[in-house]
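TICKET: design request
STATUS: open
ATTACHED STRUCTURE:
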C-alpha cells in the first residue's frame, strides 16, 4: 500500500519508522538510515516540509544530510542514539526530538572513548569559549551603562553575533559550523583533519578572504591552514593545568566568572613560526637581498610579516565609519589607503607588537571601526583604560618580495617599502588625535620617532 502526498511516494512502513525513530522496538540506526542514506527521499522531505534552506538548494541540503555508515569507521558500530540523544527543545511533528550536535556542550559524549583530558582541555580553549572575543567586547563596553544588555544583543545575536564562531568537536570534524550553514562534510565521516575551506575559513575569514588570492604559501605552494598550524593546542586547547587563571567573559560583564580559561591566542597558544620551515632565515638575511651587510639586524627589529606582508584590508571594509563615529579615521583612510580617487581600500600599518614596549618588534596592525555616536556604547577617549582600536594583526598575506609603495614598484626592491619613500607605513603620533577622536590608549602601539627609518 502506498501513500501519495506532496507529489512523492512514501512507503507507509518507512513513514511509520521515520516518525517513531526512537521507539523501543526499532533499531535506531536502521530507522535513521531509512531516510538519511537515501538522497532522493531526503530531498523530497525537505521540499515537503519546507525546511529552511538559507542560501542552499534542496539538493545541496540533502547532500549535507546524507549518511553512509561505511564512511563512519569505528563510529559506525554505534547506534545513532548513543550520541544523538533526546532533546525535547528540538521536537518537531515530523522529526524526532534529538540533539543535532551532541558535542554542543564541549564534547562530553566524546570523552567516553577519547578520554576526559582532551574534552576538558577543549572546554577551556578559545575555540569553545570564544573568550578572547568576549573579553574584547566586555572591555569595549566597560564604560557603558546597562552593558550586560548590549553585550547580549551583540554577542548572542543570531547568525552574526560574536558567539556564532563558537566551535564544537562535531562542527569541525563532522559538519560545517552552524555559522556557515552547517551540513555534514562528507556523509557523516569523522575527518581527522577537516577541510579548511568548510571549517576554519568560516570564522577566520579575516585571514583567509585575501589569503588564498595573495599569499605565496597558497598561490605558489598550495598550502592549507594545517600545513603551518599543526600543534594540537591550537585547535583542542592545551592542558588545563598549564592555563593561568583568568576571567571567563562569554556570559557578559554582569557575570564575574573565572578559572583556567584561555584569554588570548597570542599567549602561548599559536606556536607556528616562520622559522619552523625557514630555518636559514633566522639570522638577518638583508645581505641576501642587497649583497651588503645591513647596518641593523632587521630580524631583531621586525617580525617577518612586517616586511613580507602585502597591503591588506585594515578592517575598514566591514567596520565602516561615518562622520557620526567616534574615531572616524576618515583622514587616515584617505592618506594611508591612497583613497583620494576612492579606488584603493588596502594599506599597511606597522606598530609595536607588545604594548608600551618601545623595543618590541614591529608587526602589521589592524584598526577596527569606531563607535557610532548614535549607538548606546559609551567610550571615554581620555581614559587610559579605554580599549584601543588598533591591535597587532597576524596578516596572512605573505609575499617573497612585496612591492607596496610606488618607489618599491619602480625599483623592484622591497627596501623602498620603508626606505626612500613618501609612503608612511608606520603608526605614529601623526596618525592619531589622542583624546579627541582616538583613545589615549593608542599610544601603547605607536612607533617611537627614534625607530623610524632615517632615509
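STATUS: resolved
RESOLUTION: sequence designed for all positions
ATTACHED SEQUENCE:
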Amino acid at each position: 500500500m502506498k501513500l501519495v502526498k506532496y507529489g512523492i511516494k512514501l512507503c507507509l512502513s518507512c513513514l511509520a519508522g521515520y516518525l517513531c525513530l526512537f521507539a523501543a522496538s526499532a533499531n535506531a540506526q536502521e530507522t535513521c538510515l531509512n531516510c538519511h542514506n537515501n538522497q532522493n527521499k531526503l530531498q523530497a522531505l525537505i521540499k515537503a516540509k519546507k525546511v529552511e534552506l538559507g542560501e542552499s538548494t534542496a539538493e545541496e541540503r540533502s547532500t549535507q544530510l546524507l549518511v553512509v555508515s561505511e564512511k563512519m569507521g569505528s563510529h559506525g558500530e554505534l547506534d545513532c542514539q548513543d550520541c544523538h540523544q533526546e532533546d525535547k527543545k528540538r521536537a518537531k511533528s515530523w522529526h524526532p526530538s534529538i540533539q543535532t550536535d551532541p558535542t554542543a556542550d564541549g564534547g562530553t559524549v566524546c570523552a567516553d572513548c577519547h578520554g576526559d583530558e582532551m574534552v576538558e582541555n577543549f572546554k577551556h580553549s578559545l575555540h569553545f569559549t570564544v573568550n578572547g572575543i568576549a573579553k574584547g567586547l566586555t572591555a569595549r563596553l566597560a564604560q557603558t551603562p546597562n552593558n550586560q544588555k548590549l553585550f547580549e544583543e551583540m554577542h548572542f545575536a543570531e547568525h552574526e553575533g560574536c558567539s556564532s564562531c563558537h566551535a564544537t568537536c562535531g562542527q569541525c570534524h563532522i559538519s560545517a559550523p552552524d555559522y556557515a550553514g552547517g551540513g555534514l562534510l562528507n556523509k557523516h565521516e569523522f575527518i581527522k583533519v577537516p577541510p579548511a575551506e568548510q571549517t576554519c575559513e568560516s570564522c577566520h575569514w579575516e585571514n583567509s578572504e585575501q589569503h588564498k588570492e595573495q599569499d605565496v604559501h597558497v598561490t605558489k605552494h598550495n598550502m592549507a591552514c594545517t600545513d603551518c598550524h599543526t600543534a594540537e593546542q591550537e585547535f583542542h586547547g592545551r592542558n588545563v593545568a598549564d592555563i593561568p587563571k583568568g576571567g571567563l567573559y562569554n556570559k557578559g560583564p554582569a557575570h564575574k566568572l573565572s578559572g583556567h580559561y584561555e584569554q588570548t591566542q597570542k599567549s602561548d597558544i599559536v606556536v607556528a613560526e616562520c622559522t619552523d620551515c625557514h630555518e636559514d632565515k633566522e639570522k638577518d638575511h638583508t645581505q641576501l637581498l642587497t649583497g651588503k651587510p645591513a647596518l641593523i639586524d632587521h630580524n631583531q627589529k621586525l617580525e617577518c610579516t612586517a616586511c613580507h606582508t602585502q597591503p591588506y584590508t585594515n578592517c575598514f571594509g566591514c567596520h565602516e565609519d561615518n562622520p557620526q563615529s567616534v574615531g572616524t579615521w576618515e583622514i587616515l583612510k584617505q592618506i594611508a589607503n591612497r583613497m583620494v580617487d576612492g579606488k584603493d581600500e588596502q594599506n599597511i600599518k606597522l606598530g609595536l607588537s607588545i604594548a608600551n614596549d618601545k623595543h618590541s618588534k614591529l608587526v602589521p596592525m589592524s584598526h577596527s571601526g569606531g563607535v557610532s555616536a548614535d549607538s548606546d556604547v559609551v567610550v571615554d577617549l581620555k581614559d587610559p583604560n579605554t580599549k584601543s582600536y588598533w591591535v597587532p594583526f597576524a596578516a596572512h598575506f605573505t609575499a617573497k618580495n612585496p612591492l607596496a609603495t610606488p618607489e618599491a614598484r619602480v625599483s623592484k626592491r622591497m627596501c623602498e617599502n620603508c626606505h626612500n619613500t613618501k609612503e608612511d607605513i608606520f603608526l605614529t603620533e601623526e596618525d592619531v588625535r589622542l583624546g579627541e577622536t582616538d583613545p589615549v590608549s593608542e599610544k601603547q602601539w605607536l612607533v617611537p620617532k627614534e625607530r623610524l627609518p632615517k632615509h
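CLOSING REMARK: Residues 1-26, 316-344 have pLDDT under 50 and may be disordered. The CA atoms of residues 324 and 393 lie 26 Å apart.
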